[in-house]
Amino acid sequence: MVSFSSDIRNRQVVIVSLSSMMRSLGMGASWPFMAIFLSLYIHLAVYIVGIIFTLLSLMSMVFSILGGYLADLKGRKFTLMLGSISGIFIYLSIALTFLFHIYTLTIILFIFSSFSGSLVYPSASALIADVTNPESREGGYSIYRILSNVGWAVGPLMGSFIYSTGIIYIFYALVVASILQTIIILFVKKQNVLKTGKGTRNPFLVYDKYLFIFSIATFFIILLSSQFSVSLPLYSEIAIKINVADLGYIYAINGLVVVIGQYPLIQLFARFGDLITFIAGALFYALGYFIIAFSTNLYGLMFDMVIITMGENLTTPTINTVISKMSPPGKTGRYMGFNSMVNSIGRAFGPSMGTYIMYTFHYNGLATWSLIAIFGVFSAIVIVIFAISYNKSGNTYIARGTKT
């Protein structure tokens, strides 16, 4: 059984979760509209929008390696602060370049905005692993997700209002959110700085075949979930023809279902172990994206988002838990960073693949979303392979909270 009470009293878990909530408030207000922003306001073709999101994620891949390394070498707080403060300047610069119609620089800065999140994510994930024991770690990550998604529940609704008044204010909202995030991070304790010495000759890289196999599974999940950012909003606006301002309601459902459903879902699946939980989440993801093919209005898309978010609730905290269990002492940040790097490759190819599929099949719903949904099935298959190979090595993930 997953216990939340001890983690709620864990001050460091709450602080890093609140800082993430501030970040997700800004991202939630902006992210549903970014593909629309590039398409309608900067007048880029749909496939160019996909390429830009690919470049964004490729940069995130590089920065994730750096973020994981810095989290271990310089400490979690240093890396969190660096990522958060950089976000303030990057998002403010994006707003100013758009205001003065320097669109080429706007696009370049948008691509490099991945620097901020790529430093914050592995540091926050590693910090939670530091301050929780294996038995309560799933609870720690679930609290992190619940508080983060309070921002995702409120942010998109706020974004819909901001979009109606002027899209440039969305970037100002990101700046304010980054400032609030930075203030909260000030209360994080400094800890876990890696002492250099033997075994750190290749400090940026990790060599673990089981981490590699597991990361392939998460790669397919991210290929699928990255349609959330580009393909879903573009398909909703172009094929289903919903009002762009209404996109906020769809994404608010995502945050709301996390806040409401994260705890009961984790409790329900606690008895089955991490890998079964991940497989169930992958199949929920696949189902959620597949039924988009049959949606014809805003309410249908909101229902689809409920199913998609159930997949997210089961996979996202489980990814962090599995990686934290398999990582050796002193390398948690780098293990998180490696997985984040692989996931960034998924985010890089996901938008391009999704937009290419939509373009090729002329926005035919059944063809488009059937092909996209199959990524979730591939992820479940790879997890089965991971479980078999890992168990043969003498380790097991039969029960939650069991140190492997």
TrEMBL record:
Single GO cellular component term: plasma membrane
Give me the segments passing through the membrane.
Answer: 21-42, 48-71, 78-101, 107-131, 143-163, 169-188, 209-228, 248-266, 275-295, 366-390
For this UniProt record, the keywords arranged alphabetically read as follows: Cell membrane, Membrane, Transmembrane, Transmembrane helix, Transport
Q: Coiled coil: which residue ranges?
A: none
Annotated Major facilitator superfamily (MFS) profile domain residues: 1-391
- Name this polypeptide is given: MFS transporter
| Keyword Transport part of the UniProt annotation | yes
Q: Spell out the Pfam families in the cross-references.
A: MFS_1
| Membrane topology type | Multi-pass membrane protein
Q: What is the lineage of its organism?
A: Archaea, Methanobacteriati, Thermoplasmatota, Thermoplasmata, Thermoplasmatales
Q: Give the UniProt subcellular location, in the record's own words.
A: Cell membrane
List, alphabetically, the InterPro entries matched.
Answer: MFS, MFS_dom, MFS_trans_sf, MFS_Transporters
One MF term from GO for this chain?
transmembrane transporter activity
